[in-house]
Known about the structure:
Helix 6 (94-107) packs parallel to helix 7 (123-131). The chain has ten helices and nine strands. The strands form two sheets. The chain has a seven-stranded mixed sheet, sandwiched between helices. A two-stranded antiparallel sheet has the order 1-2. By secondary structure, it is an alpha/beta fold. The protein has two domains: 4-62; 83-284, Rossmann fold, CATH 3.40.50.150. A hairpin with a 2-residue loop joins strand 1 and strand 2 (78-81).
Amino acid sequence: MSTIQELLKESTLDKADAKVLLAHLIHQHLNWPKSALISRDTDALPKALLDEWTLLEKQRTEGHPVAYLIGKKEFFNIELKVAPGVLIPRPETELLVELTIDRIQSSGKKTPKILDLGTGSGAIGLALAKNIPNSQITCVDVSAEALKIAQENARLLNLNSVKFLQSNWFDGLIGLTTNLPAEECVFDVIVSNPPYIPAGDHHLSMGDLRFEPSSALTDDHDGLMAYRAIFKEAPAYLAEDGFILVEHGFDQSKQVCQLLQEQNYINIKAHQDLAGIWRVASANRAASVKLG
């Protein structure tokens, strides 16, 4: 029988990936903690574990994302269930959560109402729910499969007050559809990490992106279609002092801010991530917009 030490030595996988996969397997099969990768690295491993390791190693070699292989991903101090039906949460998206928390804290709102558009696994909305006491959060996604995963994550995190709706952006929010009462359709904050990779971009055929849902990655156009739709409709769903924050591609900051300006948003700001890349745009609703 092989040992952890032997498997790591013999594997052609990136060592970090191999350790994540092995940590998952030793917990699943033996209920060992991650520290056993060191403390029990010479213990013999059972055949069932080794068989599954062979399969996972092969799948990872073929390019399957580690997060899909182990069925989970950490994001902003929460652990999320993920599957091929949802985008894998990225560390850079944590900036969107951080900025939203900062803005809400600065506003002094005690029970902020937040709309997460295109929630996917629920990463943004659930991270906000976990970190903002008394927040009222609604997560929407056009994909029924994604919503099922997001709802399961809410259950696992015991965030039972978060609402979920199937909607193509704002289409399912209108009170007349009875999905939400009219008075619940005005939010203090709207956040979104929409599909922003342009059609034909070479990144779509590289790495993990090859296995993630295309609809969560690209608009099959110029990468800006979602922003046009969201920015046009959002003012009618924002409170008078409400604000919007969106993640965008590494080279889209000027274009996204220009789209906000064209829709008469105010206090438009661009924000850099830890790598110095312009990653998020934020703005306040124009004061002249009338609700309803």
